[in-house]
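Long-time lurker, first post. I've been practising inverse folding by hand and with some scripts of my own, and I keep getting stuck on stretches where the structure tokens seem ambiguous. Below is the full token string for one chain I'm working on. Before anyone asks, I'm not after the true native sequence, just a reasonable design that respects the backbone. If someone could post their per-position residues I'd love to compare against what I wrote down in my notebook.
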């Protein structure tokens, strides 16, 4: 079993920045076997992919709408993944979820992700 705990959400003005963290733990969790992703769900919309990273090589993958604004990174020693969000827009308002993919590949395919955190709210005021 893998546990994921997000933190760092909050309220920010448009154009501002916010950083999210996701700490992973669990007896069977081996960072070399997983990739980590961030997803979000805006009010009235489906959950969508934001960014993903491979634990071992650090390769990353982003959805087009956040490229150049968001950066995903990881700290292997702390088993923590981060999402740094710059130039935030009102349309970035959503609950952000951290997820672990057992495929080990940083994909945007939601079904690749087996474990999910509880989510953290990000609200961007315009």
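-- Answer (accepted) --
I ran through it position by position. Result:
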């Amino acid at each position: 079993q893998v546990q994921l705990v997000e933190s760092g959400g909050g309220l920010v003005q448009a154009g501002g920045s916010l950083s999210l963290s996701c700490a992973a733990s669990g007896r069977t969790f081996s960072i070399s076997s997983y990739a980590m992703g961030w997803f979000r769900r805006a009010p009235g919309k489906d959950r969508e992919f934001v960014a993903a990273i491979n634990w071992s090589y650090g390769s990353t993958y982003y959805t087009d709408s956040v490229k150049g604004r968001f950066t995903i990174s990881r700290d292997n020693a702390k088993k923590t993944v981060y999402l740094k969000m710059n130039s935030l827009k009102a349309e970035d308002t959503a609950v952000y979820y951290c997820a672990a993919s057992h495929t080990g590949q940083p994909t945007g395919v939601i079904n690749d992700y087996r474990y999910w955190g509880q989510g953290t709210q990000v609200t961007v005021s315009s």
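A couple of notes from the structure itself: The two ends are 40 Å apart (CA to CA). The chain has a mean pLDDT of 94. Happy to go over any region you disagree with.
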